[in-house]
Amino acid sequence: MLLPSEDGGRPARGLRPGGREADAMRGDGDGWAVGPDGGRRWGRFGAAGLLLRAPLPDGTPAVLLQHRAAWSHQGGTWALPGGARDSDESPVVAAVREAEEETGIDPAAVSVRTERVTSGVDGGWTYTTVVADTPSPMETTLNGESTELRWVPEADVETMPLHSGFAAAWPDLRTRAVRMLLDTANVLGARPNGWWRDRPGATARLLAELAESVPRTVELPGGSFGWVSRIEAVLEGQARAAVIDDDRTLVHTAAGSGDDELAVLAKGTSAVLDQVLTVVVTADRGLRARLPGDVPTLAPSTVLDWL
């Protein structure tokens, strides 16, 4: 991870994607950018790093970190893999490329969730953190920029000696465990795909698709991040006949109104689970008005975009 720096030499590029030597494909981003303040920062067109999460066996997230080589800026600290952007690269392309070069990860197994500028100077250089997930901790391969690569449980990241740039950004990048309650009827109704002809079947298909998309990082209202390890779906009416058999989906069968069930569930967890953030997925204004003030909501389009 190449972060704002006033000193240190040019970091080695290692290998470009496809196994070709860096010198044969030298990008035009290598070099120092001089900002309006006179400070030098690595990456003529800015820089980017990859914050890659993967679920551990217990379902909690781990983050891939590199232990920076002694010769690098703030050597001996831990940070994200990353580096200079080339002029023809987006932050996402640059971050994934640099991570592949520095850690040997498979880009095909990386699912990008979002990107965020986490450092920069007015009118000039920026550092963008690209937030991504992968289904399980991948094997990694060192290059000369690291002395160790490690999948670190997210709860342990702040206990490590972090690069100052990453340490400053981390509080806004870390996740909070999320209990996601799904207003299933409302989400189902947001897709005009003929679900009304077979509500149980359409419900089962929707939940099966959503189950395939977790665990994952989710961006929450206000810009913070959450970690969703499973989805809790409330079923009402005919949808209660849906057959659901997946550990990533917990079903609550409403005896009456699904909204009533969701309101009760949200109030119960809001009062008890102070370490877990309850989030309700619904576009129903009436239901939203019944939820506790500390329970945020997400639009159905948020989860449908996962599919």
Describe this structure in words.
The structure is a single chain. With 307 residues, the chain is α/β, with parallel strands linked by helices. It folds into two domains: 41-172, Nucleoside Triphosphate Pyrophosphohydrolase, CATH 3.90.79; 176-305, Rossmann fold. Helix content is 22%, strand content 29%. The chain is built from seven helices and 15 strands. Strands 3, 4, 5, 6, 7, 8 and 9 form a seven-stranded mixed beta sheet that branches. β3 (47-55) and β4 form a beta hairpin. The two termini are 31 Å apart.
Strand content: 25-35%
Going by CATH, the architecture of the largest domain would be Alpha-Beta Complex
Per CATH, the class of the largest domain reads Alpha Beta
- Please state the overall shape, judged from the principal axes of the Cα atoms: elongated
CATH fold-type name of the largest domain: Nucleoside Triphosphate Pyrophosphohydrolase
Mean of residue pLDDT values: 89
Distance from N terminus to C terminus (CA atoms, Å) equals: 31 Å
Keywords: Hydrolase
Biased composition (Basic and acidic residues): 18-29
Domain Nudix hydrolase: 43-175
Region (Disordered): 1-39
